[in-house]
Amino acid sequence: MLKKAFGWLHSPYWTDERKKEVPSAEVVNGVLDYVRGLGLSDDDLYKLLKKFPEVLGCDLESEVKLNVGKLDSDWGINGKTLRSVLLRNPKVLGYNVDCRGDCAAQCTRCWVRF
User: Fold this and answer.
1) 3-state SS, one letter per residue, for 37-70
2) What are residue 79's DSSP bridge partners?
3) How far apart are CA 29 and CA 25, in angstroms?
4) 62-110 pLDDT per residue, tens
5) Are the C-beta atoms of 2 and 53 separated by less than 8 Å?
6) Which domain, by its residues, includes 41?
7) What are the BP-aspect GO terms (predicted)?
8) Dihedrals φ, ψ of 6, to 5°?
């Protein structure tokens, strides 16, 4: 799981952009604690990570927290609804492109998929 999250295994999310990196426990625990704090149980967290292990390699402040804020501010998604969205489509935590229909060829990271 960590290999995929930090670019050691091929991932369509990272394409060739991610440099192989040894994850620090602080970074991984920071993401895990934050995501767990969104109302996910340990079982939910396992399901989310199984679908999108790359979240562990996403920047907590500029991607994960920003995207949770965007879900709340743009679509009013929070609380139990947020939990449901994250379990159904955890990749939303890593979206960092919004082509608004004018394709930027980074579809695995694009909000247009949401």
Assistant:
1) CCCCCHHHHHHHHHHCHHHHHCCHHHHHHHHHHH
2) none
3) 6
4) 999 999 999 999 999 999 999 999 999 999 999 888 877 788 777 787 7
5) yes
6) 2-113
7) DNA-templated transcription termination
8) -115, 20
94 and 109 in contact (C-beta within 8 Å)? yes
Say what the pTM is. 0.85
Structure tokens at 91: 């990749």
- Residue 75 carries which side chain, given as an amino acid letter? W
DSSP 8-class letter at 94: G
Whole-number pLDDT of residue 40: 97
Structure tokens at 114: 């949401």
User: Based on the structure, what is the number of domains in the chain?
Assistant: 1
CA–CA separation, 44 and 50 (whole Å): 10
